[in-house]
Amino acid sequence: MDIMKKTKIEQYLQRPLWVLLILAFIDVVFFFLDIRCAVILAVVIIAFAIFQMVIYSRSKQAIVKECMNFMFEQSQVQNYLLQQLPVPYALLDGNGMIIWSNEAFQKIAGDNRGKSIQQIFNNLNRNLIPSDVSHAISHIEYQKKYKDGDQEKEQTLFYKVEMNRIRVEDFSDENDNSCSRQMLKDNDLIAAYFFDQTLLKKYMEQNENQRMVIGLIYIDNYDEILDDIDAVKRSMLIAVADRKINKFIQNVSGVVKRTERDKYFVVFEQKYLDKIKENKFSILDEIKTINLGNSMHMTLSISFGINGNTYQESYEAACAGMDLALGRGGDQAVIKDGEDISYYGGNCEVMERTTRVKARVKAHALKELLESKENVVIMAHKIPDPDAIGAAVGLYRLGLSLGRKAHIVMNEVTISVRAMVDELNKSGIYDEDMFIDNEQAINITDENTLLIVVDVNHANYTECEELLNRTKTIVILDHHRKNKDMIRNPVLSYVEPYASSTCELVAEILQYVDSKPKLEPMEANAMYYGMLVDTDNFVNKTGVRTFEAAAYLKRNGADLTKVRKMSRESIETYRIRAKAISEAEILYGRFAIATLVGIGVDSPTVIGAQVSNELLDIDGIEASFVLTSVHERVYISARSIDEVNVQKIMEEFGGGGHLTVAGAQLVDVSLDEAKTIIRETLKYLESKGDI
Predict the structure, then answer these.
(1) How far is CA 460 from CA 399, 484, 485, 486, in A?
(2) Which residues lie across from 629 on neighbouring strands?
(3) pTM exceeds cut of 0.70
(4) Where are the beta strands (DSSP E) in 471-558?
């Protein structure tokens, strides 16, 4: 600005000189035209020049003084305005040293002469504004010390800091070679503005804390536990449970309303949610301590919906969370925050339901869907196991019995199902396109196709994920716990974690279909084999309904000798499994971790699952984890008996399953890296007391 003023003043003072030059030129012309006029004009020019010189000599000091006074007054005004600016402001050099600051900044930082910005604000330095950026914004916390009487206290302040780079060459005089100007050119300046957001953050936190949490609490086994206790004690049992639930919500200043005999609606402020999380939903364990002669524990399912734009959205989130909690077997809490879902509890084995009403309803609904569509495509998970193919075969028979064209999607015939598939193909009673690959499935799947997904509810784990987008009529039959990545918007979902296997669910459905489809012996063998594998020879997750399903298959011609032959393996497979077990690592004296390379091995994930089961036979082992490397993926098979919830551990990696049987997949990691990740995860969860 000073340079511009200097130029304007110089131009103003030089104007008489230009007038004299123009008159002199005119006078020269007049000497050729009229000598007398030229002489008169020359005298006028000389008089004008003398007059201007006198005026300039007398006025020069006054003009300079007035210019200096104006610039001084302007500088004073600008300096005063910057000093009185309510926004803290500081000017930094290229090294982050404070060159100048106003009074508002000095109130925050005190005497800052000779200090760098990082000495005052630890999390703020000149690197926050890169050399190729002219403007940057950051948010910082500052602990300001102050005295309250004789005590020294601290106050946390929050600032939004805007930093602007000032390049000196943009406004400096190119001809100015002064030392100070050259030094500034070598180091750009940084102007920093501090906007106090302490009150804003306080109000935002208050608003966040005062938002309402909508919750639902269900008693999972209400009917079963009432049947398990004397009639005279039933009202007392419910009263004790009701009092515990009310006390749990009243401790967080909430409101609880019983909407049905086994359902509660709750509301409380979000600021209490952290307290509930810290206690890890203690009500889940407290409710199990109720004992009035009942042989089984009462369990709860809890769901909270938070941060919805409206109360309606939060309520819908709570309902969706409750569906997940119940679908995962109950005895747990779910917090749904938009797309983020957190799980708590779930340390109790899922209780088997004795009622058959649900199976009957699902069977009737599935029959209606089959009758409404021309084509049926049945799909399981990648690298299918006997339970997946056995369930698919049972549903294939159901489709045929209703006169529908059915197909089973399978890209790879693994060693665990090879004997089963070979027997089906050699029988000659099935169409050649009974088993199809992904490409064939995509070509025949359209809006008029019923897609049945078995033994998996995770979209990314299905054999052909693209099929899910080609039809809106999707049915899910599975016995694994639900998770947030579950296949969206199925028209029918039958996900029951209490079931031992998907084959058990399909066997129940077949019994309740009106047409009473008759299984072929080889189909009954396939389903029986699937149950046998998933229950580890009827040792794991078996209940009354499991054996009733097995009895149904036996009545339909299941041959145990043929099933046993299906499960036999080669000597090489046996050696691979034995090697993995012998090299297993024991961690903390209670966890077994084994690895095996799946390259060149037929059905490596099946072998991994077998190794996981066998490691549990070692005394003292509470949980086993087998890592199998296949095609740049590491598959984790996790197993436990009852002490450790492996499903919660696998959910840390995006997987899932059951309390005692779970799995997950890791992508773009080596076998050694995956093993390190498992170690660190177990160490972290054990330190938190979660396992």
Answers:
(1) 26, 12, 8, 9
(2) 597, 634
(3) no
(4) 474-478, 492-495
